[in-house]
Design goal:
Layout (H helix, E strand, L loop, with lengths): L11 H12 L4 E4 L1 H7 L8 E4 L3 H7 L3 E5 L4 E6 L2 E7 L1 E3 L11 E3 L3 H5 L10 E3 L4 E3 L4 H4 L4 E2 L5 H7 L3 H12 L2 E2 L1 H9 L1 H4 L4 H12 L4 H11 L1 H5 L1 H4 L3 H13 L4 H9 L5 H10 L4 H12 L11 H11 L4 H15 L4 H16 L13 H8 L5 H16 L6 H16 L1
Parallel strand pairs: 2-5, 10-11
Antiparallel strand pairs: 1-2, 1-8, 3-4, 4-5, 6-7, 8-9
Helix pairs in contact: 7-10, 7-11, 11-14, 14-15, 14-19, 15-17, 15-19, 16-17, 18-20, 19-20
Length: 422
Amino acid sequence: MIADLHNADIPKPVLEVITRLRELGHATYLVGGCVRDMVRQVHPKDFDVATSALPEEVQKAFRKVIPTGIQHGTVTVVTGGNHVEVTTFRSEGDYLDGRRPSSVSFERDIVKDLSRRDFTINAMAYNPLDKELVDPFGGQVDLPARLIKCVGSALERFSEDGLRPLRAVRFSAVLGFSLDPDTRDAIPATLSVFRKVALERVREELCKLLLSPRAEAGLQLLADTGLLEVFLPELARADAEAARLARAATQAAPLELDVRMATLLADLVTGPHARELCMRLKFPNKSADLVGLLVEHAKLETRLTDTDPALRRLLARVGPPQLPVLLAVAKARVQARAPEQLPALESLAERLGLLAAAKPPLSAKELALTGGDIMSTLGIGPSPKVGEATRYLVESVLDDPSRNTADQLRALLTEWSRTRSA
C-alpha cells in the first residue's frame, strides 16, 4: 500500500514546506483527507501538513506566514504565491458543547495527533520524503474494505463532536462505503449531541451528500440512523413510498444543488414550505427562493395538455431563465414515478422552449404602453386603477402576444374602462 503513494501527486510548494521543516529537525507529515485519497489513488484536492514544530517555530522557518488559527496551532505558509496550511500536532481536552474541545495541547508525537481524528481512514499520516505511512488505527485496512469506522470508541467520538455522525453518513454516500456496525449503532445513541450542531454545518454536510454519486443511499442511511428526523422531519415522517420516490428522484436529478434539493422536496411539501425549510437550514436567500419556486411548479406532468396561453402564464411565473432547471426537476420526478410519461414530458419541454424562444411579453415592463401611457389613455392620475389596468393588459397579451402594440393596447384599455363603468 505504501508503494502506491506517488510523490508526483504532491504540489511542489507543499513538498518544499515539508522539506524545510524536516531540515530543521521537526517531524512533518501530510495528514487527513489527502492521505486517504492518495492511498485510494485519487488525486487530492487539498493537502494539509502537520508538524511537531510549534506555531512560533513554523513562523520563524518561513519568510511569509499568516497566523490563520494560531491559537489552535494552524499557520498558513505563503510560498511562491501558494498557501500551505501547517498545523502543530495536538491533543484535545473535553468537548463541552458537542462541537469544539475546551482546550488544545500541542504535542510532539504524530500518533497522539491522529488519535483525536474522527475516522480511521482520516487518521493516517504520510512522510513523502521517507515514504513512511503512519497508520496506527488501520485506515489502510478499512479503505479496501470500504468501511467508515471511528477511531477508538464510536460513542466517545460522536459524543465529542455532534457533526461526526452526519460526516460518517456523508462519507458513506460520497465514497460508497458502509458504516462499521459499532459506528452505525453509536449514531442513534448520540442524537442529543447532534442536535447541538449549528444548522449551517448541517447544511454543508447535507449539500455534499446531495451532490454525491450515491445520494439516494445516503438519504436512506440518514433516515435509518435517526439523523434525518432531527433536521428534515418533512422527509423523515413522510409515507414510506413517498420517501422512497423522493430519494429515487433525487438520485435521478442532475448534480446541481438547487435542482436536487427541489427534487427531494417537490412531492413532500408546498413551494412556500420548501422555501421556509431551506431558510431554516440556512440556505442563501436566493437558493431558498429558487427551490421554493421549483417545488411550486415541479409537477409539469399535470400540464401536458395545457394551452399556449396557460404555458405562457407558467413562463411568466417561473421566468424563462429558470426553465432548464424546472424541466430538470420535472424529468427527475417523472423518471422515478412514471417513466412512461417521459416522452410526453419531452414534448411539453419542446413546446415551452419554443414559446420562450418567441420572447413573448410576460410582465408589465414588457408592455408596449408605460404606466404614463395607461394614465393618459384612461384620463386618470396615479391610483389603484392603474395597477388593475396594467394587470388586465398583461393577461391580454399572455393570451395573445400579437396584441402587444400601442394601438391595440389603447383600444383594449378603452373597452376595458367602458365595460367597468357600465
